[in-house]
Design brief:
Aspartate Aminotransferase, domain 1; globular; 2 domains; alpha/beta; four-stranded antiparallel sheet; Aspartate Aminotransferase, domain 2; homodimer; about 40% helix; 13 helices
Chain lengths: ~400, ~400
């Protein structure tokens, strides 16, 4: 017997909500996107060539030259006054909004987490579009929420299905991405928005309206946020982000709300991270005040439109019969449902071997996934690269469709 | 009867953990610190005149000139490689550490929240020094933890009391600030650290070692972190922050850990805020790589030492008989226990009326507060301002001491 028996390595306890999660879907996307031998359509990663780098550098320089000591000092949890003012001006294009109604967050992910932290109890139900943004589902789920998907069509969530789900499940909140939805690229038209608002108002249900893509419109008419319809503004938290418009690296977004919940949101934000980077906040405020974000976004949209067209043109002929693909009027994503019993997750390894990556769609479903779905971001690569890579993806799809059809023919 | 009875305003649901919290202690500190008619000793707010503004501006400029497109793009949840490398070099002064063992957070507050999120279940016990940092208690409490204070003396937490509390309460983790503790300014010497490490090792208890102030030493010998003693590194998460050394506004800190828990921390960080500002991360990395942080900190320490001396000299004669005040060898805070039945919270309004603010000590206790305590930060103001304001505070204290003694004499 040894006096010093070998100790097993110390094992940290892990909270149940993170048990078995050695990685996260988003982390894996970013890892895939970093591979240089693969054309990745997996992430919603802006093309860095399109960043307004000179303008952003100007603004950092201006802030550090004119507001330097303040930028390096502590700020307030609600966010810096200048940025809240600029954010309010943008929201007010659709919905009367004052700076006091804005809470600054470190990107939309933190906004979703702050809202979940402020509102959700374990066991609460959150209704979401089926499919929906997977990292939002995670922010709700780690707060113990039961996340339930509501049926959708190409016009977004179905009002009748939403009404039934609310009456059945009594959700604490409904989470929707009405414009250029992630992952489908779908947009709810005004009639659909009105019908959804009517359901939410009648049932006094909280809406979390996530709108990171709305300004990236290539065609069609802009639609007002659901928050601006009827009396919805009082029961909606509306989320915007600078990530898709200016830069994801600066991590600045905001929540627009009304009433007492604003106090709770600020307290939750303080508990989570005290405040967002003051340097970044003041820089984004300066950018919005002194540069022409709309002109920049128009330029980006012109490029994205070409890329959407390139992908839509390339993918149509390589899809198997009966497959469905969306053709969004803006945003970053196409969504394809291949059918034929194809498992897009299983197919991914072959696609990556062929030098193409996409995001398998199953992870966007809170339940009952269509495993033949995939999300394709068209924003990162030039049209020629897209056409070439989609061609290679088509060969992989064709092989899997034949294989799957062969299997089902034998059943 | 009206066809349209007036609707009551919509009320958002609020999670129980935030119910009744219209504000937070830290938010109120920052509000008080913003008043120009009050000399505030309330916050641990660095003097902005001491910021190395030119150096920081240089680094933002360098990053945006040399790594601009990367700085504006998405990064990874673990943190940017250069910053993790620089952080590891600093930690390795006391404890062998690789970049892989570093997780970047948006300041120490987010680090505490990430750890709580990754490890704590509702009902878990967290042991803390009594008194301790109030925002850490909040990060644990909103995760449903029962936070229990352990007795301390002027040398820090008492090993026997810690041992007893661990055996009684079976805590999920112990949270300590061994150097220039917040709020007391106390430091555990090496013998005390060894005794505490022995207790934690014997009971296989997780330690969260928070060290935002350790580099701000004015006198005495540096002490190694508890994480570096015996086999503690495997069961410790060690927290550092750039807030007190370089700038609180850039919101950059890190966690040093070992083993599988690092994966869980990255997943929790991704769920909370995806990643910290890439611009800020690369800038801090550049600052650490190209500027002399130690020389900057030495300059700051020289100024803080004078201010500590000014406050210690001014406060000694104005304290009532039997009061106790700490004289820390570094950090930002003095801690006074006035006794005489004084309620420092009730006294604050009179102090503010006299143009002086401090932080009442009761909020730093998880339970059984000594309500006669106050925390005084000496870092924000010049010695003459400190001497003058402490003089006025002395008059307020004298009035309250007489009043309290009169009351107890009549009982």
């Amino acid at each position: 017997m040894s006096e010093h028996p070998e100790q097993p390595p110390f094992r940290f306890p892990v909270a149940t909500r993170y048990a078995g999660m050695a990685s996260s879907p988003l982390k894996d996307i970013f890892a895939l996107a970093a591979r240089t031998d693969v054309v990745s359509f997996a992430g919603g990663i802006p093309d860095p060539e399109l960043f307004a780098l000179e303008d952003v550098r100007d603004c950092y320089d201006w802030v550090l030259s004119h507001q330097g000591r303040r930028a390096l000092q502590y700020g307030v949890s609600e966010g810096e006054a200048e940025l809240r003012e600029q954010a309010a001006l943008r929201v007010a294009r659709h919905l009367p909004t004052s700076a006091e109604q804005i809470r600054i967050t470190s990107g939309s992910q933190e906004a979703l987490f702050v809202i979940a932290e402020a509102l959700l109890e374990p066991g609460d139900v959150v209704l979401v579009e089926s499919p929906t943004y997977l990292a939002a589902v995670q922010a709700f789920a780690v707060h113990g929420a039961r996340v339930i998907g509501v049926d959708t069509d190409d016009g977004g969530v179905l009002p009748d299905a939403l009404d039934r789900a609310i009456r059945t499940h009594h959700p604490k909140l409904v989470y929707l991405i009405p414009t250029f939805q992630n992952p489908t690229g779908r947009t709810m038209d005004l009639d659909r928005r009105r019908a959804v608002a009517a359901v939410l108002e009648r049932t006094a249900t909280v809406l979390v309206e996530d709108d990171p893509y709305g300004d990236l419109r290539f065609s069609g008419e802009p639609c007002p946020p659901i928050a601006s319809l009827g009396a919805m503004s009082a029961q909606t938290l509306l989320l915007h982000s600078m990530s898709k418009l200016m830069s994801p690296g600066v991590r600045i977004g905001w929540i627009r709300g009304e009433g007492a919940v604003l106090g709770t949101l600020a307290v939750a934000k303080a508990a989570i991270s005290m405040q967002s980077s003051v340097v970044d906040q003041l820089t984004v405020a300066r950018y919005l005040a002194s540069k022409d974000l709309d002109a920049h976004v128009a330029r980006v949209c012109g490029v994205y439109r070409e890329r959407r067209d390139a992908m839509a043109t390339a993918i149509a002929p390589v899809l198997p019969a009966g497959a469905h693909v969306t053709r969004p009027e803006g945003g970053m994503f196409l969504w394809a449902s291949l059918g034929h019993g194809i498992d897009a997750q299983a197919m991914l390894a072959h696609a990556v071997a062929a030098g193409v990556a996409y995001l398998p769609g199953w992870s966007f479903y809170a339940e009952d996934p269509d495993r033949s779905t995939m999300r394709l971001s068209y924003v990162t690569h030039a049209p020629a690269v897209i056409a070439d890579a989609v061609g290679r993806l088509g060969e992989v799809i064709a092989t899997h469709a034949e294989r799957a059809d062969g299997v089902s023919a034998r059943v």
